[in-house]
Amino acid sequence: MKKIFVTGSEGFIGSHLTEYLLKKGYKVTSLVLYNSFGNNGWLNDVDNKLKKKLNIIYGDVRDKNFLINSSKSHDAIIHLGALIAIPYSYIAPESYVQTNINGAINILDAAKINKIKKIIFTSTSEIYGRSQKFPIKETAPVDPRSPYSATKISADQIALSYYYSFKTPVTIIRPFNTIGPRQSER
Q: pLDDT tens-digit profile of 101-130?
């Protein structure tokens, strides 16, 4: 697999992943959420030599046709694109549904149509809410404590349904408390 399509590449984890993939020689297309400022987020901090090898496109995971057309001829999709601020999810839950759930469906449909060989979905430890047992296991029950976590649970379940229904080659990862350079100050 040499051509990888990365959503959410301008974020904390996505920018580090994109940088890593470029260092390893992959051809990376980074989907950056369109904004009128032309801001590439944390991708601006990637080494300029690597950035020259990067194909940045601007768009939105909520646009299925855009995803279908822009992910053609890629071997893999790594989906990190999401609305993530938990407090804002209480104020604007519909935005989270549109991006985190409908965006996930759009990624899965694009992958299915384009016969993508591998899809990696980035979920979150927030799906476990207030777990009663530690360490938390993948089989722990989900506990949606915010609209954000509910949308991520939904996206996980939809991804699993595509795996079981259509044999879509999806893997779900759930990072816990990632820290490092480029992390949000909050």
A: 999 999 999 999 999 999 999 999 999 998
User: CA separation (Å) from 39 to 57, 115, 179?
Assistant: 12, 31, 23
Reduce the DSSP state of residue 185 to 3 states and report it. coil
Q: How far are the Cα atoms of 55, 61, 68, 99 from residue 102, in angstroms, in the given order?
A: 25, 8, 14, 6
Q: Is 129 helix (H, G, I), strand (E, B) or coil?
A: coil
- Whether the CB-CB separation of 59 and 110 falls below 8 Å is answered with no
Tokens standing for residue 29: 């297309």
Is the CA virtual torsion 166, 68, 62, 16 positive or negative?
positive
pLDDT at residue 185, rounded to an integer: 72
Q: How many residues does the chain have?
A: 186
Reference 31, options 23, 49, 43, 22; nearest CA is 43
At 171, give phi and psi (nearest 5°). -125, 135
Peptide bond into 169 cis (omega under 30): no
Instruction: Determine the Cα–Cα distance for residues 70 and 77; give it in Å rounded to an integer.
Output: 11
131, amino acid identity: S
